[in-house]
Specification:
Layout (H helix, E strand, L loop, with lengths): L14 E2 L12 E6 L7 E6 L7 E6 L2 E6 L7 H13 L2 H4 L2 E6 L2 E6 L8 E2 L7 E7 L6 E2 L3 E4 L17 E4 L9 E5 L7 E8 L7 E6 L4 H19 L5 E5 L3 E6 L6 E7 L6 E4 L3 E2 L4 E2 L2 H4 E5 L16 E2 L4 E5 L1 E7 L11 E3 L9 E2 L6 E3 L5 E6 L1 E2 L6 E7 L4
Parallel strand pairs: 1-30, 2-12
Antiparallel strand pairs: 2-24, 3-7, 3-9, 4-5, 4-8, 6-7, 10-23, 11-12, 11-22, 13-17, 13-19, 14-15, 14-18, 16-17, 20-21, 22-24, 25-31, 26-27, 26-28, 29-31
């Protein structure tokens, strides 16, 4: 007979960083260069008046700093230089901004792109003028966000494409072009005129309408426009496409860049209708009309890049940095929502703080992804101890 002793087992759930692979499946990847720029904050102080033995005061991050001009007849340049020397002697300033002067102007430039600092000036004697000439922009390409291609630049001193430097940008309408399809109709004189629309990513049957020819071509097109407007509204597709028309044409336009659709128009009676479309790669804008054509995957977390380089969390690739995107696999992303297994994934294409973020619910500017391409798996523990991090299964290769 053996003695059995109680044993205590302890464990913890695995925690994930946004942008990590969150499963055991192989993750295909593609590499490029971040073309979405981050910018440094720049502030200037202009010495308007050179006054002897006078206090020149500015406030940086809530702390007031005063330079007192020399007696006698100081010049504007001497006062500007004195303010520069004062600023650079203070570690609270020097660790956040580089300070230079030229003539009568002192310039503060943030050390890190995307890192904002507070700079104010309270002047009653009008001896200094302050201006923020460039705001901090930490847009970059944030870890765990959708990434789109902006194409390949030409090689230096050549018209050849530089295949090793595909340009990546965070997915948003700023990095895509709105699709517009224009049908020019010939007058069929009789019979029905019909149209159909399908939207890539919306898993529903094509929307189709038809109207009887009425009086003349312009009247018939107006009726077709109205029928399409009603059908789009009834199906909730007016969030993605708008219809306009005139006496000879009818146009379908994406309500926001990145929506990919097919628009067909025909008539019962034979007529030579024609279509023009900008769908695809728009060379003048260096962007695609379709998010699905442009989509290069999710920005993978890179442990080399620290949060202090952008001044915000989650961290981002700065401009011109080498970027790795994951095309397939189980990936940890910031959703901020509870997700359900197999639920549909939406990508936010609005310009701003949420650009490229994946969501479990639809809203203005969010594009649905086909479930064959992306689906939610679970809500995970995040490194901050919250449930804002979720795992989605991505298969970009089906786009």
């Amino acid at each position: 007979m053996s003695n059995l002793y109680p044993t205590t087992f302890q464990g913890r759930l695995r925690e994930f960083h946004v942008g990590m692979a969150a499963g055991t499946k192989h993750c295909d990847r593609v590499d490029g260069v971040a073309s979405t720029p981050q910018s440094r904050q720049v502030d200037t102080l202009v010495v308007d008046n050179a006054v002897a033995s006078t206090a020149y005061t500015f406030t940086f991050e809530g702390v007031a700093y005063t330079y007192t001009s020399a007696s006698g007849s100081p010049t504007k340049a001497e006062i500007a230089e004195g303010i520069r020397d004062l600023a650079m002697s203070k570690s609270a300033i020097a660790t956040k901004a580089t300070v230079t002067f030229a003539s009568d102007t002192v310039t503060f430039t943030a050390v890190f792109a995307g890192t904002a600092y507070a700079f104010t000036l309270t002047e009653s004697d009008a001896n200094l003028t302050h201006a923020t000439t460039a705001a901090a922009d930490a847009s970059g390409i944030t870890f765990g966000r959708a990434v789109v291609s902006r194409g390949y630049p030409t090689a230096a001193n050549s018209n050849a494409r530089n295949d090793s430097q595909e340009q990546f940008a965070q997915a948003s309408t700023a990095n895509l072009v709105a699709q517009a399809d224009v049908w020019t109709l010939a007058d069929p004189s009789s019979g029905d005129v019909f149209a159909s629309i399908s939207i890539r990513g919306v898993e529903a049957a094509d929307l189709a309408v038809s109207v009887a020819y009425d009086t003349d071509l312009g009247t018939t097109i107006a009726a077709l426009d109205a029928a399409l407007d009603q059908a789009l509204a009834d199906n909730g597709w007016d969030a993605y496409i708008t219809i306009t028309s005139d006496a000879t044409t009818i146009t379908a336009t994406a309500t926001f860049a990145g929506v990919d659709f097919d628009f067909k128009v025909g008539s019962e009676a034979t007529a030579a209708h024609s279509k023009s479309s900008n769908k695809g790669w728009v060379s003048g804008s260096s962007a695609y009309t379709s998010f699905f054509d442009a989509f290069r995957g999710m920005a993978r977390r890179d442990s080399r890049i620290r949060a202090t380089s952008v001044g915000s969390a989650p961290t981002a690739y700065p401009a011109n940095e080498h970027v790795v995107c994951l095309l397939t696999g189980e990936l940890a992303v910031y959703s901020g929502e509870a997700v359900t297994l197999g639920g549909q994934v939406f990508v936010d294409l609005n310009v701003g703080a949420t650009a490229g973020r994946f969501y479990a619910s639809g809203a203005a500017g969010r594009l649905p992804l086909p479930k064959a391409m992306a689906r939610w798996l679970r809500t995970d523990n995040s490194t901050s101890g919250t449930s804002a991090v979720s795992t989605l299964e991505l298969n970009r290769l089906t786009a």
